[in-house]
């Protein structure tokens, strides 16, 4: 059977089961609130959100590869395009755009105009250091690590802190060669 | 660049227009997020009752916000004062908005006057969850029970809400029932209003 070509983010999103974004938004808010009550330190909460995102990302990548039917990306540029156009659309129903490529092609910015995680959210003065959407950076990190890419993700713009959009800077640190879990000789 | 407009910046989140509520995310995104919520809470507690309580607390927060949002958007800021009114609001409107369909059934308890049950063949949150044998009667529906409790408490109908599995003949997965037990004051008030 000939392999099915990669489907567009819109096509996949309309074919999968969906839930109301508000349930998603409110559940995420409940999680952040629980973390803030338990951990109290904003830095700790940031780390915990990133860790949760990482756990989600390592499982999300399987679903992504299965539903989207994409083949191996040729270079990091294609990877970033896939994440922004297909990945975000498939899971969050919004499209992101990729900009600001550096000379090597290893560092870029993913920009989100619309973000279902932050509807109805306002950061109080006591939580100014909080990266509310840090779970997204963990998801991207976890997902790419499962396909042998080590990356670093930082937030450069955040609407909750007064900017006009969400901007994630994704930097490829290295591509790890795939290792077999067993040795041939043994 | 010509033609590219910036999103209007609202300094106050309360000034932003309220969305119509039609935006959707994938079911798997929600399922992953919910599983992280449960896993995180598992690390914070020692026993199942605590875990259920924490999930219920998380759901409570969701429920109180959902009530405000829906009262404003769907009902034009009218307030429910009768018991059946608030129950059918939860059973139809809240369920429809959050889970995409009305709840399977709403029943009045036969043994006690103050008990009502909302049943669902398969709760959305439980769809991808399997409970290991050593966790006994733990039900992640405690999150949904919390949502219902949040809605009822903030609408002025204090109640104790719990989620239970009810095995059904001929079905592999048990049905989930949300049991609502209203406080005395609610019943007294209802009796007074009925006269």
UniProtKB/TrEMBL annotation, chain A:
Places the protein is found: Golgi apparatus, cis-Golgi network
Transport in keyword set: yes
Main location group: Golgi
Key word tRNA processing present: no
Pfam short name (any one): TRAPP
Keywords: ER-Golgi transport, Golgi apparatus, Transport
GO BP annotations, alphabetical order: Golgi vesicle transport
One GO cellular component term noted in the UniProt record for this chain: TRAPP complex
Superkingdom of origin organism: Eukaryota
PANTHER family per UniProt: TRAFFICKING PROTEIN PARTICLE COMPLEX SUBUNIT 3
Family listed: Belongs to the TRAPP small subunits family. BET3 subfamily.
Quaternary context: Homodimer.
Record function comment: May play a role in vesicular transport from endoplasmic reticulum to Golgi.
Name of the featured protein: Trafficking protein particle complex subunit
Species: Arabidopsis thaliana x Arabidopsis arenosa
Biological classification of the source: Eukaryota, Viridiplantae, Streptophyta, Embryophyta, Tracheophyta
TrEMBL record, chain B:
Example of a GO biological process term: endoplasmic reticulum to Golgi vesicle-mediated transport
Protein's cellular compartments: Endoplasmic reticulum; Golgi apparatus, cis-Golgi network
GO-annotated cellular components: endoplasmic reticulum; TRAPPI protein complex; TRAPPII protein complex; TRAPPIII protein complex
Chief place where the protein resides: endoplasmic reticulum
Highest taxon in the source lineage: Eukaryota
Assembly description: Part of the multisubunit TRAPP (transport protein particle) complex.
Alphabetic keyword roster: Endoplasmic reticulum, ER-Golgi transport, Golgi apparatus, Transport
Protein name: Trafficking protein particle complex subunit
InterPro entries in the record: NO_sig/Golgi_transp_ligand-bd, TRAPP-I_su5, TRAPP_component
Record bears the keyword Nucleotide-binding: no
Family membership: Belongs to the TRAPP small subunits family. BET3 subfamily.
């Amino acid at each position: 059977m000939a392999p099915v070509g990669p489907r567009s983010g819109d096509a996949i999103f309309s074919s999968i089961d969906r839930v109301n974004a508000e349930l998603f938004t409110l559940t995420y808010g409940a999680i952040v609130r629980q973390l803030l009550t338990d951990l109290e330190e904003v830095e700790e909460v940031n780390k915990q959100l990133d860790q949760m995102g990482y756990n989600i990302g390592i499982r999300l990548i399987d679903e992504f590869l299965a539903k989207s039917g994409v083949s191996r990306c040729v270079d990091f540029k294609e990877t970033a395009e896939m994440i922004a156009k297909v990945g975000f659309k498939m899971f969050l129903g919004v499209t992101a755009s990729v900009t600001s490529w550096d000379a090597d092609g290893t560092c870029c910015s993913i920009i989100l105009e619309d973000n279902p995680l932050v509807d109805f959210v306002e950061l109080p003065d006591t939580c100014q250091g909080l990266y509310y959407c840090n779970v997204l950076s963990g998801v991207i990190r976890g997902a790419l690590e499962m396909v042998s890419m080590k990356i670093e993700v930082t937030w450069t713009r955040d609407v909750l802190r007064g900017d006009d959009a969400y901007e994630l800077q994704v930097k490829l640190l290295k591509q790890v060669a795939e290792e077999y879990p067993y040795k041939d000789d043994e | 660049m010509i033609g590219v407009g910036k999103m209007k910046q609202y300094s106050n989140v309360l000034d932003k227009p309220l969305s119509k509520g039609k935006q959707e995310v994938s079911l798997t995104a929600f399922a992953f997020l919910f599983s992280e919520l449960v896993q995180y809470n598992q690390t914070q507690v020692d026993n199942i009752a605590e875990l259920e309580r924490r999930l219920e607390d998380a759901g409570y927060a969701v429920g109180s916000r959902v009530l405000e949002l829906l009262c404003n958007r769907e009902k034009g800021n009218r307030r429910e004062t009768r018991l059946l009114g608030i129950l059918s609001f939860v059973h139809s409107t809240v369920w429809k908005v959050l889970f995409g369909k009305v709840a399977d059934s709403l029943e009045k308890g036969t043994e006690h006057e103050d008990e009502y049950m909302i049943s669902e063949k398969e709760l959305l949150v439980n769809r991808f969850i399997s409970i290991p044998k050593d966790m006994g009667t733990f039900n992640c529906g405690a999150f949904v029970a919390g949502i219902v409790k949040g809605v009822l408490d903030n609408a002025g109908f204090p109640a104790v809400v719990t989620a239970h599995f009810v095995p059904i003949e001929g079905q592999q997965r048990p049905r989930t029932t949300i049991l609502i037990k209203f406080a005395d004051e609610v019943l007294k008030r209802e009796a007074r209003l009925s006269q």
